[in-house]
Amino acid sequence: MVLGVGSGVWGLATLALPLAGGSVVALFLLRALYGVGHCVRFPAQAWSIVRWFKPNERATAVGLCFSGGQVGLAVGTMISAFMLTQLGWQSVFYVIGFVSLLFTALWLVVYPERKIGCQMAMTEIQSSGDEARVSWSSLWRHRSVWGIILGQLGYLYAYFFFMTWWPSYLMMERHLTIPETGLFASLPFLMGILGTLGGGWMGDYLIRRGFSRTASRKTMIGTGLTLVTLTMAAAAVAPPNLVASLTAIQNSIGTISSLLVAILTGYIVEVTGTFVPALFLAGGMALMGAISYVVVVERYEPLPVKPGAASG
Fold first, then answer.
1. Can you tell me the distance from the alpha carbon of 303 to that of 249, in angstroms, rounded to the nearest whole number?
2. Which of 54, 124, 187, 245 is the most buried (most CB within 10 A)?
């Protein structure tokens, strides 16, 4: 229900955005509403994966799950470029918002809450003693939590650069046409499909071959820093019933990068007249994220938090 409602909110906000007209306030409010709906995606999906899959299956499940996001970005970029040139910019928001609402309906119908389920996974959660209410404050006392938060900051800076400024770079500095920009802007996300699927499978394969969970996760994060590995980090580090909470914390703080990349990139290009420093900065932030996941995070095992009176 949480993800279904959030998806409905971001679909409606996207569909309604052209109605803002020339009002900056209305545009701001609709984009803020989109963010409110979208913020539930990662916690809800991470918790669903933990509920239905065994520990040595979760990386593959994350890869399959989040490859859908990469498909959407890759295909959507090309389709949006076509609609922009042929039908006008408003059509992009109308079509994507409407399709998003269709997927919302599919999610509510298809999600197998009452049909199937991995009893082992739920038994693992129940028998671990983690059902007791645990405070959010207990998470902040662990080095590994700070490691994945810093890793998320670095990763999302580079990720949002590709989502927001990469098309502008291709048009302004490489002088590509809108259709060409749509094609080349989709390439990082096409590669992301291979990264999420391959990285997820490889992470579980390494565990089956005798690697510890920590060695497997650090290997994949250090070499790829893909969406699958950062989400897997939250699912592996948090106690089972705190996966959604930890994912919410890391993404809430990590999304600060989306604000920074929007402001800093515009400022850098305005001052220097080139995207080169902005590209180096995005690459440096991604490197910081990789170092945080590999060095600062101690172990990819459930945190030794204890039940407390306060809960989040």
1. 15
2. 245
Query: What does the block give as tokens for 201?
Result: 């499978």
Say which amino acid occupies 16: A
Integer CA distances (angstroms), 166 to 132, 171, 185, 279, in order: 45, 9, 7, 9
Task: Please tell me what DSSP assigns to residue 295.
Answer: I
Query: Which ranges of the chain would DSSP assign to H, the alpha helix?
Result: 2-16, 24-38, 41-52, 58-87, 89-110, 119-127, 143-164, 166-172, 178-185, 187-208, 213-224, 227-237, 243-254, 256-272, 276-291
| 257 within 8 A of 285, measured Cβ to Cβ | yes
State pTM to two decimals: 0.68
How many CB atoms are closer than 10 A to CB 106? 12
CA atoms within 13 A on the CB side of 197: 11
User: Residues 4-48: pLDDT tens digits?
Assistant: 999 999 999 999 999 888 888 998 899 889 988 988 888 888 888
251 Cα distance to chain centroid:
8
Query: Residue 225's pLDDT is what?
Result: 56
| Structural tokens at position 311 | 């809960």
Q: Of 12-21, 264-273, 299-308, which gets the smallest average pLDDT?
A: 299-308
